[in-house]
Design brief:
heterodimer; A: 387 residues; alpha/beta; Aspartate Aminotransferase, domain 1; Aspartate Aminotransferase, domain 2; 2 domains; seven-stranded mixed beta sheet; three-stranded antiparallel beta sheet; 13 helices; 13% strand; globular; B: 354 residues; alpha+beta; Rossmann fold; SH3 type barrels; Elongation Factor Tu (Ef-tu), domain 3; 3 domains; six-stranded antiparallel β-barrel; four-stranded mixed beta sheet; 9 helices; 16 strands
């Protein structure tokens, strides 16, 4: 069995699992004033300090949430509302065309329901956001922009984005940048302070922590209107009883993922380059998508012209090799990937892609299994497309 | 796997028989959003979930295949075009012919599968297609359109049990769909309003309702497609017939856009013409065949003699039949104590009193 879908979710790290079980045995609402409450709160605050140190942030900048989608929605909608309320002229959102749906659909919703104006940043053929277009948008609309949102690394094709450059460009206009760094943490160095971003999304289950817990790093001076109102937890930005074991486990996972990032990146890059080279040898017409160098170490995203990605996926699955056609959120009825379309692929090519993503448990044997099963799968998928 | 009880049990039986089974749910709507609005029909998100849960319980992989484009072209567009041409199509039959045992089967074979298993109530053994043991649920009529090549790759595991037994078996197997109600409506008309569906697509086309004997114009209709041969209700005629007896739709003529009506006995026909003839075993017969024919889904059976000529088939009924519509299938059966055997199928083009 070869699991090549770590970008969808990756196994929990042993430290994270152990931390979860230990913390789950603790009694106490972290907002309660008695000893049990204080004990729970202490675990949360230690976790907050830990992730802050690992991610180049201050503890007060850490807002724990229920995961990546919530963090993205909080950043995009919350910053839009906050900035618009402070200055009604600021109702423009700038977003790249290759964002995850958690950002993309939040932006679309603001456009439809909240009167937001939207500037969409195109990407080049390698999936890198066009900085020249951002410069034009800033020059033309600088006074109307509420926020810029751009992901640190694309979840489908793996291309890394110039976030620091973006923050530098927006800084002189006083515009905050939100970045979804869900795929980046643990794979490439992520430092919130150095990035210049005002808000940054991380989630647990992509780096070896549990699903259902994430965070938004949020600068102290960034105006944000909450999505959830209630008990006033997390700076009154995110109400709701804190998930103590989830947060503690998440922090343990971040600690390991960040500490081992350099070694992981080196190992996965080698494994990934081997995977790509052997796929191309087995299927010479396969095309590598995304930037060949500036990409996530664990990401190999390939098109197989003349095949449907869906068909290859099913056949590989039957052979014990698990991968993805795009992001798992598109599962069910296949839609051509908006990322590939933004990179200039036509619909047919956009449907012919597979993502193989490696993570902390990936081995050479996983790649061997893929290479063994792939030629037959591609051949049959090609025959099926011809029917 | 539609999400219903039949396909769930069929999949379970196939897996239990030792086949390497993969569950496939067909996404048939071009706009997935519409899945959410229709509680009825066979392509709602809820049905997809039911199918997935059945696959989980059986322990087989499960995928959704997007057949929306093919389904729209081959079944929905065909359905509308047939009505517009004054015929009464059977979309389930067309779906079997063009989607389940064509598009799906071809894709499956290319991907390395050997056969398509469905939950149809019919028996297939060594290429011989027979009625189900459950005559009330028998679906051999909508499968008879399949040719021998298609049938050679079809497996119907439910033909030897009744619907009631299917439900009992589903419950025994722990399948949650055991008591899910049967679907009766046309799956792509979620609200069940066929006339509204057709009017939306064909447009209102007013024309005359004419008396078959006198030729007198009795009233006006908004579109001949809304009428079916044998229909009595909803004619909207204000004047009673001269003899005071009810009137029925006798025929629909798209060219002149007229609906012809008359008394019940004028509906009676005993010669039925058809084309697009398919011999179930692939062997053409030229001599007359003494047999039974069925002229619509779940319709009665008529003793007949059929004569084939090339692509066409003519049936001489022993006793007259009523309400025979062009566009429906005529299916030829050979009565058999082991289950009536399907010999041939064709599409009705017309009928008359011989």
């Amino acid at each position: 069995m070869a699991y090549l879908d770590h970008a969808a979710t990756t196994p929990m790290l042993p430290d994270a699992l152990e931390a979860y079980v230990a913390a789950a045995a603790h009694l106490g609402n972290a907002s309660a004033l008695h000893a049990a409450g204080r004990g729970a709160r202490r675990l949360v605050e230690e976790a907050r300090e830990s992730v802050a140190a690992d991610l180049g942030a201050r503890p007060s900048e850490v807002i724990f949430t229920g995961g990546g989608t919530e963090s993205d929605n909080l950043a995009v909608k919350g910053m839009f509302w906050g900035r618009r309320d402070a200055d009604p002229a600021r109702r423009r959102v700038v977003a790249s065309e290759i964002e995850h749906h958690a950002v993309l659909d939040a932006v679309d919703w603001l456009e439809r329901h909240e009167g937001a104006a939207v500037s969409r940043l195109p990407v080049d053929a390698g999936g890198r956001i066009r900085m020249d277009v951002l410069a034009d948008v800033l020059a033309e609309h600088g006074d109307e922009i509420a926020l810029v949102t751009a992901m640190w690394a694309n979840n489908e094709v793996g291309t890394l984005q110039p976030i620091s450059e973006m923050s530098a460009a927006t800084e002189q206009h006083g515009i905050p940048v939100h970045t979804d760094a869900i795929q980046a943490v643990g794979q490439v160095p992520v430092d919130f302070a150095a990035s210049g971003a005002a808000a940054l999304t991380v989630t647990g289950h992509k780096l070896g922590g549990p699903a259902g817990v994430g965070l938004l790093l949020l600068g102290r001076d960034v105006p944000v209107t909450p999505l959830l109102h209630g008990g006033g937890q997390e700076r009154d930005v995110r109400s709701g009883t804190l998930d103590v074991p989830g947060i503690v486990s998440f922090a343990a996972a971040v600690r390991v993922a960040v500490a081992e990032q350099a070694a992981t990146a080196e190992r996965l890059t080698r494994l990934r380059d081997d995977l790509i080279a052997r796929v191309r040898k087995a299927v010479p017409e396969a095309i590598l998508n995304g930037d060949p160098v500036d990409r996530l170490p664990g990401n190999a995203h390939l098109s197989f012209p003349g095949c449907e990605g869906d068909a290859i996926l099913m056949l590989l699955d039957a052979a014990g090799v698990q991968c993805a056609t795009g992001s798992a959120c598109n599962a069910g009825v296949a839609q051509p990937s908006h990322v590939l379309l933004a990179m200039g692929a036509d619909e047919t090519l956009a449907r012919s892609t597979l993502r193989f993503s490696l993570g902390h448990t990936s081995t050479q044997e996983d790649v061997d299994e893929l290479i063994e099963a792939l030629p037959t799968a591609v051949e049959r998928a090609r025959a099926a497309s011809a029917t | 796997m539609s999400g219903g009880v039949d396909s769930a049990v069929a999949a379970a039986r196939a897996a239990e028989a030792g086949h390497d089974v993969t569950g496939v749910h067909l996404a048939l709507s071009r706009n997935p959003q519409t899945y959410r609005t229709g509680a009825r029909g066979c392509c709602t998100l809820e049905d997809s979930r039911d199918a997935r849960r059945a696959a989980d319980v059986i322990g087989i992989p499960f995928y959704v295949w997007d057949m929306a484009e093919r389904f729209h072209e081959d079944v929905v567009d065909d359905f509308v075009a047939e009505y517009a041409a004054g015929r009464t199509p059977n979309p389930c039959l067309r779906c079997n012919e063009k989607i389940k045992f064509a598009a799906v089967l071809d894709r499956a074979v290319a991907l390395g599968f050997d056969a398509v298993v469905t939950g149809h109530h019919a028996r297939i053994d060594a290429g011989v297609l027979r009625r189900s043991v459950d005559l009330g649920k028998d679906q051999s009529y909508v499968l008879a359109v399949l040719n021998s090549g298609q049938l050679s790759r079809a497996i119907f595991p439910l033909g030897d049990i009744t619907k009631e037994q299917v439900r009992a078996e589903a419950a025994e197997r722990g399948l949650a769909v055991a008591d899910k109600p049967d679907s009766h409506d046309i799956c792509f008309i979620a609200d069940g309003d066929t006339r509204g569906f057709l009017t939306e697509r064909i447009g209102a086309k007013p024309g005359d309702i004419v008396d078959g004997e006198s030729g007198e114009v009795l009233g006006e209709h908004n579109g001949a497609f809304a009428y079916t041969v044998g229909q009595r209700h909803g004619l909207g005629l204000t004047r009673p017939a001269a003899d005071g007896r009810p009137r029925y739709v006798l025929s629909i003529t798209p060219v002149s856009n007229t609906v012809t009506v008359g008394p019940r006995e004028a509906l009676e026909v005993d010669v039925v013409h058809s084309n697009r003839l398919v011999w179930t075993d692939g062997v053409a017969r030229t001599e007359p065949i003494e047999c039974e024919v069925q002229l619509r889904a779940h319709g009665e059976v008529h003793a007949a003699t059929v004569v084939a000529s090339g692509d066409t088939l003519t049936a001489h009924l022993r006793h007259p039949a009523r309400g025979v519509s062009a566009g429906q299938a005529i299916v030829v059966y050979q009565p058999d104590s082991g289950g009536d055997v399907v010999i041939a199928s064709a599409t009705i083009t017309g009928a008359e009193r011989g």
